[in-house]
Amino acid sequence: MDYRQSRICEVLLSQYDPAVLDQFKMEMSYGIERFFLLTYCLACCWPGLGARTDLRVVRQWSELEFAFPSDEARLSAMQQDYYVPGNSVPIDVDVHHRRDGKWCSSQQKSRIFVTIPRFDVGRPVTLGTVDELGRIAGYPDYSWHDHQGHNCQGMTSVFRTAIDECNRLWVMDAGKIGDTQHCPPQLLAFDLDTDRLLYRHVVNASSYIGTSLFITPVVDVRGSGPGDCSDTFVYVADVSGFGMLVVDVAKDRSWRVTHRFMFPYPNHGTFTIDGESFDLMDGVLGMALSPYKQGRDRFLYFHALAATTENVVRTKVLRNDSFLADPNAEPKSINSFPDERPNQSAAEAMDRNGVLYFGIMEPPSIWCWNSATEFNQRNFYQLAVDRETLQFASGVKVINNLKGEQELWVLTSSFQRVMTGSLSSSRVNFRIHAEKINNLIANTPCANSPKGQNHGYQANMIIPSSGYQRGTLRYGAVSYL
Fold first, then answer.
1. H or E stretch including 335?
2. Backbone angles phi, psi at 5, to 5 degrees
3. Is 32 a residue whose pLDDT tops 60?
4. How far is CA 398 from the centre of its chain?
5. What is the Cα gyration radius of the chain?
6. Which of 141, 169, 328, 464 is most buried, judging by how many CB atoms fall within 10 Å of its CB?
7. Are 146 and 137 spatial neighbours (Cβ–Cβ below 8 Å)?
8. b vs e for 44-73, b when ≥16 Cβ sit within 10 Å of the residue's Cβ?
9. Which Gene3D superfamilies match (predicted)?
10. Rounded mean pLDDT of 59-67?
11. Percent of the chain whose pLDDT exceeds 90
12. Residue 50: HSE in the Cβ half-sphere, 13 Å Cα cutoff
């Protein structure tokens, strides 16, 4: 850093005490650019702030706070156990950089969405936006979240969301509070320009089972050009029903797909984070779509939480409506990469260049892999590592900002303390991180594909491109007869 930059930093930093600077670090929630210079100075000039990660902390909480529409609504929620302070755990993050927004306009700031699944009682909202004070307000408004489990026209429990290129927010409502199925699962889509409901698909009873828990939607939009949203499919992970839901939006119908790779692996069902261990036999959770090129198929990458493998399937397999008659996928139509991660991973996301981003549990860290290479640890690159701040990356998103740049957003939590009942408000438990992808992967192997190899390189080698035919499957001893 040259003398001029150093002086700018000194002048800026001299105006604030450490407490105010910490507040400014959190004020990045409405766009990375807004406080870029101050953050740059913090990283370069402030003593003792040498970071082990290039991901910036945008928001952090010891426990979540909520913005209720009135004092009466807050009191009513507490009386009914709809709100129990300290019980809420965020799982996912999404970001909407408004197309016509200006940083100086209080009505057009970028919005951060967080999801708060209802594992138990005490979560007043299950999907909300974060305000400037870090409080969470129900989206699209509080009425969608009140009357928990008693209003199936609202939202019961949301784990993750997805924003597509058509400016729609897709919300998968599992319909469960704890283990009780209060409402049928439903897929919702909101117009982010108006926050009005565009689409609702209530899942047919034939497409889920008693243990089903739909948690991760990914949206596959294909059209003849920009703005053509007519061909939309949504693929949803069923983490404890060990399958996937496929929703054909245009025809408003859905079907279930099952395969052995969607199950957990028993020898990877124990998790140890920051010295605390817990068991969780969760199946398919992390999912990411390869970039779309007109006229070509896409790959869906996915993995179970209790696993170290990554799997891949051509989306034409999932989009085949013959699953309406039989949910079992042809065994050879879905494949697993031969190599594995060093340990378990939760959420993942892929950028427009075919680079996959994911976290791992030990050490708590964020990694990238260029899908134009083989899936193995030699081709993984560690982007960030921090044993305190990067524990359990449950939300990972690639976001396009208003300049067309890609940003990586990650939500991390002390999930091990949630599972062991040792969560304490005396320490920071939940964080949202962000950074521009170009800054993160510059000069790394993820930024450059090998000559002559395109994204999906190994996926193309391990699964057939044509000739797939669905047939009747037989299992057990009868399959040999």
1. strand 334-336
2. -60, -40
3. no
4. 9
5. 22
6. 169
7. no
8. ebeeeeeeebbbbbbbbbeebebbbeeeeb
9. TolB, C-terminal domain (2.120.10.30)
10. 97
11. 80
12. 2
91-100, 120-129, 437-446: the lowest-pLDDT one: 91-100
H or E segment and range at residue 129: strand 127-130
Give the separation between CA 174 and CA 74, rounded to whole angstroms. 24
Output the six-digit token pair for 272: 């140890």
Look up tokens 């936006």; give the residue: 129
Poorest-confidence range of 99-103, 222-226, 379-383? 99-103
Written as six digits, the tokens of 259 are 């395969």
Sheet of 92-96: strand order equals 65-66, 135-138, 127-130, 111-115, 92-96
Phi–psi pair at 450, nearest 5 degrees: -60, 145
User: What's the rounded mean pLDDT across residues 329-346?
Assistant: 96
Q: How many CA atoms lie within 13 A of 31 on its CB side?
A: 20
What is the tens place of the pLDDT at every residue in 250-301? Answer: 999 999 999 999 999 999 999 999 999 999 999 999 999 999 988 899 999 9
Secondary structure (3-state) at 5: helix
Say if residues 345 and 359 touch (Cβ distance below 8 Å). yes
CA distance 18 to 35: 16
